Amino acid sequence: MSDLPLQNNQDDRISWSCRHTWRQSSVNTLWCLLGCSIGDFGTILFFQINEIPFPMLGIMTLAIINGLITSIILETIILSKQMNIKEAFNTATGMSLISMISMEVAMNTVDVIFAGGVLVWWVIPIMLIAGFITPLPYNYYRLKKYNLACH
Predict the structure, then answer these.
(1) pTM of the model
(2) d(Cα 15, Cα 17) in Å, to the nearest integer?
(3) What is the pLDDT of residue 149?
(4) DSSP annotation of 16
(5) Class of residue 40 by CB neighbours under 10 A (exposed 0-12, middle 13-18, buried 19+)
């Protein structure tokens, strides 16, 4: 343990009322949601259509992994318009995994709770809302405090 006393530094506080930052973090979160949804929904739908007998936890785990992969691919494509492909890939892979994983877990939890892990049309909007709202405060915080975003 350090001998230094803990200090409450007022400069470490951030404002949660900045519309510009909420707007930018919302746009960033929507791009991530699009990328994650492609891999996530695609995986669940693949197992569902092909009626592959596989444990639901396994399908949801694969859906999360594929969602992360497709999100990184989409971000790389988007960022490659602003920088070279290597920098774009490094930036995309350096995105916040906390944000992406929380988004994926929220979406799949909603699917399991409301539809038993089956992808049905009416659960998709609820999954997307949960996937958007869950990481949004963290993305705002990260953007506001560190000026770190993937776009």
Answers:
(1) 0.82
(2) 5
(3) 54
(4) S
(5) buried
C-beta neighbour count of 8 within 10 angstroms: 6
Residue 106 carries which DSSP code?
H
Residue 21: CA atoms inside 13 Å, Cβ hemisphere, count?
18
Strand, coil or helix: 96: coil
- Residues 75 and 35: beta-carbon distance below 8 Å: yes
Amino acid 131: pLDDT? 97
- Determine the straight-line distance between the first and last CA of the chain, rounded to whole angstroms: 38
Q: What are the tens digits of pLDDT across the range 107-127? A: 999 999 999 999 999 999 999
Structure confidence at residue 148 as a pLDDT band (50, 70, 90): low
Amino acid at 120: V
Residues 98 and 103: their CA atoms lie apart, in Å, by 8
Nearest residue to 44 (alpha-carbon basis) of 63, 66, 16, 64: 63
